[in-house]
Specification:
alpha+beta, two-stranded antiparallel sheet, about 35% helix
Length: about 190
């Protein structure tokens, strides 16, 4: 949920928050969340600091949870998340259901939010981020962060003069855009055994 709010990811059945798409050093994530594949379908999004914290905390929690899982396949699946910065190339955010694990879907997130009385569509986070970036005067960046660009304007276009370091410098805008939500990431779960 935090990553949806912090990246403007479009609502899809499965979300693309795989570690292999993240550059921690550059504070960037590569997203390809558009249904029709055109130039704007793939985009580099600067990551707010809290988004990186989510990956690190989830990895620690998964490792600690694995210590209490009997099923060897599920235990191994959870343990390997500890090495997420090595480019783990599989769905990262999964949930253990019975004796197996499965990807966290948009429906799972919506059901979770309903427990707290939140019944807006998930894309409301995307629209909130867009509005907040505009308020912060994030220049043209706010448009291509969200994939709203015309031909030739894309930072990954072969004629673009923009570098990855130029894009990553804009992560401060993402930090500012997310700050009013006052998101707190709990520390990794502790186990007794």
């Amino acid at each position: 949920l935090v990553l949806i709010a912090a990246t403007g990811h479009r609502t899809r059945q499965q979300f693309q928050f795989e570690p292999s798409h993240i550059s921690v050093d550059n504070k960037l994530i590569l997203l390809a969340d558009k249904l029709c594949f055109d130039e704007a379908a793939v985009r580099l999004v600067p990551l707010a600091s809290i988004a990186i914290d989510v990956f690190a905390t989830f990895a620690k929690t998964a490792r600690r949870l694995s210590e209490n899982i009997l099923n060897p396949d599920v235990r191994q699946h959870l343990r390997q998340k500890e090495f997420w910065q090595d480019g783990l190339d599989e769905p990262f955010f999964t949930q253990v259901v019975g004796e197996k694990y499965q990807v966290v879907t948009a429906q799972d997130i919506q059901q979770f939010l309903k427990l707290f009385g939140f019944e807006l569509p998930l894309n409301s986070f995307r629209h909130r981020l867009s509005s907040r970036l505009s308020e912060l005067n994030a220049h043209d960046g706010s448009q291509w962060f969200l994939g709203h660009i015309a031909g030739g304007e894309h930072p990954l276009n072969m004629l673009s003069a923009m570098s990855m370091s130029d894009i990553s410098k804009l992560s401060g805008y993402m930090d500012e855009a997310i700050a009013p939500l006052k998101i707190m990431i709990p520390s990794a779960l502790k186990t007794n055994g």
